[in-house]
Specification:
This protein is mainly beta. It has strands spanning 2-7, 10-13, 18-26, 33-39, 46-52, 57-59, 67-72, 77-82, 91-99, 108-111, 115-120. The protein has no helices and 11 strands. Strands 2, 4, 5, 6, 9, 10 and 11 form a 7-stranded mixed sheet that branches. The protein is elongated, with a radius of gyration of 14 Å. It starts with a strand and ends with a strand.
């Protein structure tokens, strides 16, 4: 099992910055990707950013150039640095981790409980 705990959300003015953290525990063997999704009221959950075990990153177009995902593999922790925040970035942010299928078992997706980010105009 894998457990994920987010921290770092809060209220910030437009143009401000926040840094989210996701601390993972449990069996991280074969985790090949981790990242962040977000869900605003009345909207579907959407991908924000991902990072693979090899360090490759991917971002939603809406956050490119403003958000940066990074990780500390030794601590099973990853981060989302959010700069130049906009009101439309307001959402519950969820961290996740992915294990691919292995000898007929899986794949598995693990999720944190979510952390609220609110950007005021």
């Amino acid at each position: 099992q894998v457990q994920l705990v987010e921290s770092g959300g809060g209220l910030v003015q437009a143009g401000g910055s926040l840094r989210l953290s996701c601390a993972g525990s449990g069996n991280f063997f074969r985790i090949d990707a981790m990242g962040w999704y977000r869900q605003a009221p009345g909207k579907q959950r959407e991908l924000v950013a991902t990072i693979t075990s090899g360090g490759s990153t991917n971002y939603a177009d809406s956050v490119k150039g403003r958000f940066t995902i990074s990780r500390d593999s030794a601590k099973n922790t990853w981060y989302l640095q959010m700069n130049s925040l906009k009101p439309e970035d307001s959402a519950v942010y969820y961290c996740y981790a992915h294990k691919p299928r292995y000898f007929g078992i899986g794949p598995f997706d693990y999720w944190g409980q979510g952390t609220q980010v609110t950007v005021s105009s």
